């Protein structure tokens, strides 16, 4: 096992999954990476006066660190990425409304003739030792502390079929899924589509509500440490996530019920595999014992997760050959100093 | 405060909210009702041989107990219904697939040329003292215990505009919302559209996964006790639910993102009312601190809930004038013996 | 054959399909009705100063003339309604934007935090002899003549299952389908759900673009003459329309693709019946030879139509036993003077 | 003006818009191209025994001829592509069902647990002189002739933001829009995102019903002749199409109402530009005088078109500076012999 340290310069950041970008590092199965990711605004929003639509260059939203080439990862394999730690890289995180982006506004796709909502920025002080971020209203003295809960909104590999996809969207290759489940302690499973998988990640959130309903979470640059492992010969059609307690299937689509259907369908067939149940028996078990989590309802594709408690499985240590347990035990190196 | 006991005969059950049915009881604000509800199959499915599409009469699915007339409830008021207790009325609950109904099948609306999935019934033994229901696979020996978590899938009032709506669907009047949040300890707020509100409820579930993805939960007849209170002069545009810890807004619509939008929009404006925040500040708070819960993704209208922890509010005891705290303190009478 | 003349007073207008309203006339199969319908604003918008949200009473939008009781129409039968003539009842028609209603605005269901578009009224002079209506811009001198093309946005029967549905929406019972295909010369087929069918119609449009994208068409009170016939023992699951050249199936639902699916599914199975093709062969024929028409994309349920040219059928005179040809030949009585 | 002849070999076909593929030819504004396109199966389906899922290599569906580099086309410009002629390249066209693809089946996104529909192939004889294609049922002797109406399902440029998109889907860059409006005599306007535009086209259909409801049209290799012109300094946000009589805006999205909204929104703002109307007056005109056309309801993004008759415009010859009229007058060279 090697530990790779990688701190991208601004010009090293990427805005697609797939495409011609050269890998920033070559990893072996079992390696650990200690790296830094920028926030979704590329760090350009520093005060409440910095309206994102003015200070961010078009096409430079949601930068991704990577791609990382993983040796021996071939199409048809699965890449497991275990998030070992995430530490906010700056003492302040940022959120905003953004013109015609978000769940409670018309958008470029849900197009109406109405003008956009006011663009407004909120700054959140991060109190990492206390595990809190502070919400401060902009138009009144109201303030309240919320739990610090770091996560990556964006993680993915190069798509299939020679596609390159914007880091703003998500699909079967992962990408901008915007689910709080990609947090320290979680293992993300991504189907490999090209040699080396070409892993990228970014869009750290100090925390996020379900649906990312305002279109922007509590955005934060991150020091992140993760480990990778290649699972040979096992295909993963849609991203999956495993925590200590839960297995989860991710669906990315519009309308939202299709994201729901994809995630539940994958969980049913996966549960059938893990339990030996026939499809309808697995459907019944998932229907009564499962749950559904809302990722984003603001990006070009929405994200839903279907989740099942692992204690319902006959032997949860067999999930992807026990990779989650192995990677969970990897010691966390000190984060890179960016 | 009076306690009303009411046990409907089969012919007393109703299949719409609204319409000409005479009230089964007249309640006063503050009264308690101890009653019985049938399961969604009207109790007709007793064994795994009883396929619902064969044993249930068309148009007799999802019966509702009621309507209850609430004195002094007038259009523009809100009816608070607090669920004091729910006890399964039979030792066995039932689930099934149902032809062309559910989230992972084509349906009458998501119409395809494919034949339906196999219709199959599952029986669940209820161990009320242990708080468990037992899932047993039909095609293999697999079995597992799941928590007993009683809830009402269906609760509502007469709709506005002279409408009468099938008990299968949900909308601004409530109805078949199919959310686990309508459980003992919760207060449901429903906008009153007609004099007396005309409250009905049914569709007890011993438990349910998010989305009711198979179209049918763990269906159980219930002994249910609830209390009502009329909140005069306060309108409630969409159903809301309050628990000891959380305020929730319900949206019912298709596609699923519209159910999400309705629920989040209502929670944002409600939060603005409860905190004094302006709309965008409330939007930001809900976006980062709120969550989203999936009710059903199988009924004619889907249900989503937007939820906010009450500890974030300056004074949560002011929600609807503190009715939740008052009704929470009502002593629970012994359930009626059906 | 009898000719019934019926002119409703304002208090005779109805706002639901289904419900307790007594029939306004009793018709026999083959009878003709000469009647009057109000516009969707109940005639309250007479000048560009009459903003609909101010001059229309809540709950009094989209009034319907009826219900007409049709003798011998029983559940499981089909009611054929042939539109013999439509003549605008006033020399001016009216359109408007309406707050949070329409396809290019957020709405009560596609809920956003944006304020509504400006409410604005347009008046259209009707030149009936020339067959034209005149569009005049409100903010510039631009004007242009458009073809007069009268149609009924709303036609339906009482729904199944004891429901009563607002005249604003549409579903399997018909209602506010808002398709230009309900025009003179067309026969509408509606499945009968209650004894007497309880037919109603209204919402005349002097013309309408596809999708009724602004939420309001060129609204006009109408003198309308129609004939009815009961087709015994033939069920019609969703509304169908027949013109001299085309058979059409209607789907009403959200999202729009479900309205599309319902309509195409019905046309495929209907085509299989009319041609003897097996289902997949009919699917193929409809896929290559059929078309799709957009009804409304603004009402609570959207409407799509699937259409097939009748000349592709082996014998188009067998459609519903040739009722279209029979009713097409009915002489048109002079319209009632309202 | 130069005439370029280009006949791709099988290995020259492309499966994405955007990406690293080198241009197959360099065109100047005003040039004409005479080329050949393969059908969506790459010509692999030759008999009813050739089930597409067996005879087509994965990832080799919907090949595109190109990319063509257009000199002087820069981001922010518009590329006009006028289709001069289309002649089927083989005497037989082909259609099929395809597993879990189409509007009346569950799919990978509208995921259900049902097995796919039977995969079945239909062959259509093309009678070019008579302008007919012959539908023959597979399970009965039924046959009928339908009009030959050649069109390209797929035409587009490289997307923005460094993306490369599968030729199966469509979006703001064009792609697999699957609308019959891309036919001889039509001019397609595409916003340029990369230097040279990188135009590609393919997926010829001998004809297609609205919605491409079976997922596959009457697929045919084509001899196609087209002309290009660069409109400098004029951006086009979504594809537009102009015929001799009509201007059309294209929207590609899910759900279908968003495709509708995009197309209508673009047509409203375009109409405002072309008429000088303010936005709401243009909204009103489009709402009453416009129409909506269904492209596809089966691909990863659905396509809708909004259309307005050109005779309603004050001066239709000003549309994009009159490029349609200029290109309409280009003499058609003899098609290339492939």
From TrEMBL, chains A, B, C, D:
Gene3D superfamilies (UniProt xref)? Acetamidase/Formamidase-like domains
What the entry lists under SUPFAM superfamilies is as follows:
Acetamidase/Formamidase-like
Any one Gene Ontology MF annotation carried by this entry is: hydrolase activity, acting on carbon-nitrogen (but not peptide) bonds, in linear amides
Name the UniProt record assigns to this protein: Amidase
**Which Pfam families did the record assign?**
FmdA_AmdA
List the InterPro entries hit by this protein, alphabetically: FmdA_AmdA
Q: Which domain of life is it from?
A: Bacteria
């Amino acid at each position: 096992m090697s530990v790779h340290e990688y701190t991208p310069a601004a010009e090293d950041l990427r805005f697609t999954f797939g495409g011609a970008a050269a890998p920033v590092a070559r990893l072996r199965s079992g390696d650990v990476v200690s790296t830094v990711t920028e926030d979704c605004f590329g760090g350009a929003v520093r005060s409440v006066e910095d309206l994102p639509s003015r200070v961010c260059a078009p096409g430079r939203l949601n930068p991704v660190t990577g791609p990382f080439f993983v040796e021996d990862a071939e199409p048809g394999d699965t890449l497991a990425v275990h998030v070992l730690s995430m530490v906010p890289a700056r003492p302040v995180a940022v959120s905003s409304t953004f013109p015609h982006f978000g769940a409670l506004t018309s958008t470029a796709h849900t197009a109406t003739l109405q003008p956009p909502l006011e663009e407004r920025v909120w700054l959140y002080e991060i109190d990492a030792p206390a595990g809190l971020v502070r919400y401060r209203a902009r138009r009144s003295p109201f303030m309240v502390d919320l739990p610090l809960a770091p996560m990556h909104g964006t993680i993915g590999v190069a798509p299939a079929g020679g596609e390159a996809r914007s880091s703003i969207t998500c699909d079967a290759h992962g990408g901008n899924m915007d689910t709080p489940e990609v947090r320290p302690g979680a293992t993300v499973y991504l189907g490999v589509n090209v040699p080396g998988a070409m892993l990228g990640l970014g869009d750290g959130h100090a925390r996020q509500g379900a649906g990312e309903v305002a279109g922007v979470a509590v955005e934060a640059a991150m020091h992140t440490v993760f480990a990778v492992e290649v699972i040979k010969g096992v295909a993963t059609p849609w991203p999956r996530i495993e925590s200590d307690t839960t297995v989860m299937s991710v669906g990315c689509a519009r309308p939202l019920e299709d994201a729901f259907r994809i995630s539940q369908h994958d969980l049913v067939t996966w549960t059938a595999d893990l339990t030996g149940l026939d499809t309808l028996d697995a459907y019944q078990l998932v229907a009564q014992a499962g749950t559904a989590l809302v990722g984003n309802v603001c990006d070009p594709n929405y994200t839903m997760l279907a989740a099942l408690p692992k204690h319902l499985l006959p032997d949860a240590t067999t999930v992807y050959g026990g990779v989650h347990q192995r990677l969970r035990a990897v010691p966390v190196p000190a984060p890179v100093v960016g």
